[in-house]
Amino acid sequence: MPIPSHAPSRAELIDHLVRTRIAGAVATPRENNLDHYRRLANGDRRYWLGLELGDRWTDEQDVLAVMAERCGVSDDLDHRAGQDTIDPELTVDALDRMANVLRKAAEGRRRVLFATGHPGALLDVHRMTAGALRAAGCEVVRIPGGLLADDGCVVQFADVAVYEGGATLWHTHSPHPMTAILDGLLREGRPLPELVVADHGWAGCAAQRGIDAVGYADSNDPALFLAEAEGTLQVAVPMDDHVVDPRYYEPMTAYLLDAAGLSA
Question: What InterPro entries would the database entry show (predicted)?
C-alpha cells in the first residue's frame, strides 16, 4: 500500500487512516472492547493504566458512553459482537489537540520524556516526535540507568523509554516502568519531565503523578479516554496501536508535526 511521503492534509490523512485500518473498521473486535470496559468498571487495575479511577467508573455503560464520544465505537448497547470502529475524524481531532500541546512545549523549551509500551508499532512515532522537539530547543529527558520494573528492565532506545527483557523490547501496558523512571529521577535529584508523550500505562502513570501527559490508545483501552474526560490527561489519541506495518503511522506523525509547526 503506497505511503504518502509528505505531510498530508486532513482529508488525505483520514483516507489513509481508514485504508490502513488505523481508524475506521479496526481489527479490535467488539467483544474485546466490551470485555475491557467491563473489567475496568469492575475495578481490575490492569485496565486502569496507572490511573486512580476510584469508584467513578463502575458502570460499564458509562464507560461505553465516553468511548463512543471520544473514540467513536458504537454506542449501541445491543451490539455485543463483531466489528467495532474508531472514528477517524476523532483521531485527527485528537492529533490536532496533541499538536497544540507540542507547539507550546517547543515554545517553552520544556523537558519532555517519551515512552512506549508498543515498540513494534509506535517506537518510530515517538522517536520522530522527540527529534522534532529537540530540534526546536526542548530537552529530551535521559532516563536513569539500571531501572527494573515488573520482570524486566526499563531502557532508552532512540530517545524513547521502553521495556526490555532478554535482549527483546516488549509490549506492555503496565504503569510500573514509568513509575521506575520517575522515582529514579527523583533519587538522582534530577527534575521530573514537564511533559510526557507516551501511550497506555506509561502515559496514565505520568498523568496520575501530576505531570502534563498526552498519549495514544486503542479502542479496547478506555482508561486514557476517561482520564482525558476528567482532565487528568491532556490528550488521548484513539487509534489501532499495532497495525501490520509500522510505516503506516508515518503520515500520521508527519501530520502531527506539521500541525505543531515542527516539521523540517
Answer: Phosphatase_SCO2771
17's CB contacts (< 8 A; 6+ apart) are 23, 24, 88, 91, 92, 239, 252
Residues 6 or more apart whose CB falls under 8 angstroms from that of 93 comprise none
How far is C-alpha 232 from the chain's CA centre?
Answer: 14
Instruction: Give me the residue label for grid cell 530547543.
Output: 137
Q: How many domains does the chain have?
A: 1
Residues present in the chain in total: 264
Pairwise CA distance, residues 211 & 158, whole Å: 22
Domain coverage including residue 139: 10-259
Tell me, yes or no, whether 25 lies in a domain.
yes
The predicted model gives 173-192 an average pLDDT of: 98
The pLDDT, as a whole number, for residue 233 is: 98
DSSP string over 73-95: ----TT--SS--EE-HHHHHHHH
**pLDDT computed for residue 4 by the predictor:** 56
